[in-house]
Design a protein that fits this description.
This protein has helices at residues 5-16, 27-33, 46-71, 84-89, 106-109, 122-126, 130-134, 152-157, 205-208; strands spanning 138-140, 159-163, 166-167, 192-196, 244-252, 255-267, 270-272, 275-277, 280-292, 295-303, 306-311, 317-318, 321-326, 333-334, 338-344, 347-353, 358-359, 365-371, 376-379, 411-412, 415-416, 446-447, 456-457. By secondary structure, the chain is of the alpha+beta class. The protein has three domains: 5-68, no CATH class; 72-101, no CATH class; 116-478, no CATH class. It is globular, with a radius of gyration of 31 Å.
């Protein structure tokens, strides 16, 4: 078979440029090596053209999919026929829905509330639905805990408000739940610290709260399972003398957030290489259960200055109620018992939980409803006499960060033995759209099973909590200050 004059001419030209053996090549090879494509190279078969087209199609498709996965915020979802765990393993699930398919959870995953979504009926705005209490969390405190739940009213009896390390004198020197908000007249309350009257290193009894250990809890003989199987029944007990705080927030469109706040008068920090970091007076932790039309859908657990979110099906339950675990000392909240390690620059830090005394906060709580658009707290129909003024205090529920010249203080790589006390429930982003505490633009990953091997990165506490920099995470009246 003879080569065409054009191909022979192309071959000689290529040979002169250093490409050996071209004059002996087949017409198809001549075309390809010369860089000629159809229609200039008719000898290339239709099959090869199709293969080239497939390669181009796959390349373009990969680029488009890559762009979508990078630039679209995806939500944990389950496409038809793919198990949730497999979906997560494959990286197909993120934060806003399966591509091209509506996920029914979207309308409670990210909630935007308008004033017209909320009722103005005076009865409704004070009323907490019964299902909120029916699905109240049960909290396993650590069996070897030293610092048990605290009563916020008693806590105020043992502290003095200070500004710039100086006691505030006069009528507000002795604050209580009905006038605590008046401390906001000092620098809007931001730099007011409720400082212990005692040296905390002497461990006065009121810090320990031993009298507030919950009553015995009899859970029967049925055992326990995690996930959707509910095989253990609550029968009695679980009451603490320290009231929890329930704040329900109607987000409209059938969405209700039930925040359960747990207060402790002291937070004992964790040890790294036998050095303890993160102690502070006052400690607020919380569990959030998000409901849609009366059904629990999501659970969020606070951990230090962050937390984790789960689908309701994922968490352990007793009689349908979520079971959570409070870590020894730090009281960080977790969805399972055991060790919870964090990576630090100097080593590994562990929170520890177990099946210690089981606390039922529904048996003794201050209960409220909250309008997050107007920053209005109201006592609920369950505790209509509950005081509200304390909620608006914009300062700290414990001592200010001890200076380094204080004998009780030391620091290393940005972590300190004592840090400032925390802000109260009003600063826990009650208006959050997603169930996670972070800002709207931050990722909120919903976990669908409990991972016993998870290793987290410690975010650091610095000198302690302060007003959030992001105005979105502040109470409405303070968002512009």
């Amino acid at each position: 078979m003879k080569s065409s004059p054009r191909l022979v001419e192309e071959g000689h030209a290529l040979k002169e440029k250093g490409y050996a053996g071209v004059e002996h090549a087949t017409p198809k090879q001549d075309c390809l090596k010369a860089g000629l494509l159809p229609p200039n190279c008719p000898q290339v078969s239709a099959g090869m053209q199709q293969r080239h087209l497939k390669k181009v199609t796959v390349l373009v498709g990969s680029i488009i999919l890559g762009y979508l996965f990078i630039h679209i915020d995806l939500i944990n979802c389950v496409p038809p026929g793919i198990p949730q765990q497999g979906c997560d393993w494959l990286g197909l699930c993120g934060h806003s829905g399966w591509i091209g398919q509506h996920d029914p959870r979207d309308n409670y995953f990210d909630v935007v509330t308008s004033p017209e979504d909320l009722s103005n009926d005076s009865r409704v705005v004070h009323e907490i639905p019964q299902y909120v209490l029916d699905y109240a969390p049960l909290v396993h405190l650590f069996s070897g805990e030293q610092f048990w739940p605290g009563d916020i009213a008693e806590h105020l009896f043992h502290v003095t408000p200070e500004l710039n390390y100086t006691p505030i004198q006069g009528r507000l020197q002795y604050s209580n739940l009905t006038n605590l908000d008046e401390l906001n007249e000092f620098e809007r309350g931001r730099h007011v610290y409720l400082t212990s009257n005692d040296n905390v290193e002497e461990r006065p009894d009121w810090l320990g709260g031993e009298k507030n250990i919950p009553d015995d809890f009899d859970d029967g003989d049925d055992g326990v399972e995690s996930g959707a199987d509910e095989i253990r029944t609550q029968s009695k007990g679980g009451r603490s003398e320290a009231p929890a705080v329930l704040v329900t927030v109607d987000k409209g469109k059938g969405i209700v957030d039930a925040f359960w706040f747990f207060f402790y008068s002291y937070n004992l920090g964790n040890k790294v290489f036998n050095i303890r970091f993160g102690n502070h007076v006052g400690d607020w932790e919380h569990t959030l259960v998000r409901f849609q039309h009366g059904k629990p859908q999501l659970v969020y657990l606070s951990e230090h200055n962050f937390g984790e979110a789960y689908s309701y099906d994922a968490v352990e339950k007793i009689a349908g109620r979520p079971v959570v675990y409070s870590a020894t000392g730090s009281h960080a909240m977790y969805a399972r018992p055991g060790a919870h390690p964090y990576v630090l620059p100097l080593g590994i830090l562990h929170d520890q939980t177990d099946r210690g005394p089981l606390w039922d906060p529904a048996l003794n709580s201050h209960t409220y409803t909250y309008n997050h658009l107007t920053d209005t707290l109201r006592p609920s129909n369950f505790t209509p006499q509950a005081p509200t003024q304390w909620f608006y205090f914009a300062g700290h529920w414990g001592d200010r960060f001890y200076p380094l010249d204080d004998d009780r203080q030391y620091g290393l790589v940005g972590e300190y033995h004592y840090v400032s006390g925390p802000l109260g429930p009003r600063f826990k982003h009650l208006s959050r759209r997603k169930v996670c505490q972070g800002g709207y633009r931050e990722a909120c990953v919903i976990k669908h099973w409990l991972d016993p091997d998870e290793l987290k990165v410690w975010p650091g506490l610095g000198e302690g909590e302060d007003w959030p920099d992001d105005p979105e995470m502040r109470p409405p009246e303070l968002s512009q200050q």
